[in-house]
Amino acid sequence: MNVKRCSGYKGHWECGEDYPDHMVPREKFNRHSRSSDGLQDKCKKCHSYGGMSIKHPITGELKRNWKTDHAKSLGGVRDTPEWQSYLDKAEEQWGKEVTEWKINDKVVDITPRFKSEYGPSKPMTKRETVHVEGEVVPQGWVYVIRNTETPWLFKIGKTYPDGIQSRLSEARRWGCFKLEEKYWFKDALKAEKEVHALLIEFNMRNLGFEDCGTELFKCFNIGIITDAINKVIRKRVA
């Protein structure tokens, strides 16, 4: 017998348009050694559809929703001839998100870690507390630093004129971060708040993460962040 009935996924048959009677050619099923006929009960299309109910290991978002949102963020528009190509790109990104991330052939954990997970930190050397008077001045930097192990995680903050290195050192206590951008403002604190407001939909707190600071953002394209900062710059120049 060259066909087999597809069981579908929870009452849905992704293959239904091609095979309305649900009798699908056997070559369209994946192998399953423990089944009586050596094949899975769902065809490849329905099996893939069922996988769309998988949740993202970090955000907890359903795969089908995540793919749709990501495809839209790339510029895709539903019900257009190009929409599938954007979904394919989203599928590729999903694979990178949920599998082990490799850097220089070394497998690393892609789950974001926050300082509070490790308990109180112990300094390697004793040092005196220094009160930096420059912190009270309005001018300073709005900086963007990225977590190199989780490239979509950014920290966007404000620091006093000589504080960039201190902010990097603080960030590296709970991850591997590097400076991506820095912008000088006469009123850096106000500029930082305006940038955060423009990027509110990407803020980790707004995405449901409670155990993290307010300066962390999830963004797959740094251009979205720089565009927001440039809007603030143009607003102040105008």
Regions with little confidence, pLDDT below 50 for 5+ residues: 100-118
Multimerization state: single chain
Enumerate the strands of the largest sheet in spatial order, edge to edge or round the barrel: 9-7-8-10
Count of the separate structural domains: 3
Total count of strands: 10
Q: What is the string of helix and strand elements?
A: EEEEHHHEEEEHEHEH
Which percent band covers the strand fraction? 15-25%
Number of helices: 6
User: What general form does the structure show?
Assistant: elongated
First-last Cα distance: 74 Å
Structural class: alpha+beta
Largest sheet composition: 4 strands, antiparallel
Task: List key phrases describing it.
238 residues, alpha+beta, 3 domains, 4-stranded antiparallel β-sheet, 6 helices, 20% strand
Structure description:
This protein is an alpha+beta fold and 238 residues long. It is built from 6 helices and 10 strands; from the N terminus they run E-E-E-E-H-H-H-E-E-E-E-H-E-H-E-H. The protein has a 4-stranded antiparallel beta sheet with strand order 9-7-8-10, sandwiched between helices. A hairpin with a 7-residue loop joins strand 3 and strand 4. Helix 2 crosses helix 3 and helix 5 crosses helix 6. The radius of gyration is 24 Å and the shape is elongated.
Task: Outline the secondary-structure elements.
Layout: E1 3-5, E2 23-25, E3 29-31, E4 39-43, H1 44-51, H2 63-73, H3 83-98, E5 101-103, E6 106-108, E7 140-147, E8 153-159, H4 164-171, E9 177-185, H5 188-198, E10 216-218, H6 222-237
Antiparallel strand pairs: 1-2, 3-4, 5-6, 7-8, 7-9, 8-10
Helix pairs in contact: 2-3, 5-6
